[in-house]
User: What shape does this take?
Amino acid sequence: MGHPETVERASRPDGVPDYDELPVLGKLGLPHSWGVLPDLNLGTLAWLTPDRVRDAFASSLTGERISLVLPLAEPDPPLFGRQPFRHELIEIDRNTWDDRLDGFYPQGSTQWDGFLHVRCREYGFYGGRTENPAAGLDAAGIQHWQQGIIGRGVLLDVAGYLADPDEYQDAMSGRTISPADLEATAQRQGTQLKPGDILCLRFGWQHAYRQLGPADRAALGAPGAQLVFDGLSGGADIAEYLWNCRAAAVAADNPAVEVSPGDPARGSLHRRVLSLLGMPLGELFDFDELAVACHARGRWDFVFVSVPIALNGGIGSPGNAVAIM
Assistant: This one.
């Protein structure tokens, strides 16, 4: 596939091989970055160097802040058979109150998948860790990201690119988004991707979800429900695109980043990108307000700030994210 045309690539001074030059994993024959990147706990977050974080603030022109997260209780009901958490208010004394959450899933709303979320068959989690996370695999936990996923964010408004003025584009149709779609979106926006960017993808899922009535939302949250939504292909072409972009992380507004239902013949993007490349994936981000703001100013980059929780051995984390315009 080669290099995306909208990627700033100069002479690849980082010394990191491109996707087709990476080592491959055993009999799976899939490219991986185990031992290629300097820190197995950070993966591609290592590309968020101090210089890149500092330079990201050139993308802030007004200081306006836009939340990129859903309320903790949304989607309601939760997806994938999860149960709603319980929020209890506790009166400590006549002047003091606390609250607590019971049954809380850190990945129930806007969230990051950590490196213990998906394993690569018998080869283990990212970096080849084969221990059971329940046995205490703290070394690969989400707490290693507590320094923040902070840098230059770039929004690709795929929903806006796909929109036909004469036909509503349903983000719950199960359309597979290709590298060509991402490239075309970037070109239409006049957006150039740079190494270390946090790539934000708006497929229009949040907008579509907000149009649903209670019965349709309940059906999506029913145990065993088969969710259908637009998303990235699970194939090697997308993994190659994201790696060669040098994306530090990828966040999307749909429930899984990749398309659902997926195509077993193409494979799993979570395995290719999260488990093998060490690239964090964020799901259920809210990019609707951000898209309006980016369109209004004619620029699609901003400062992206997200600080995962410091939960030792954690599988995932709420997103806790804002864009600084």
In short: The first helix runs from residue 50 to 56. The two ends are 33 Å apart (CA to CA). Residues 203 and 322 are 19 Å apart (CA to CA). The chain has one domain: 19-324.
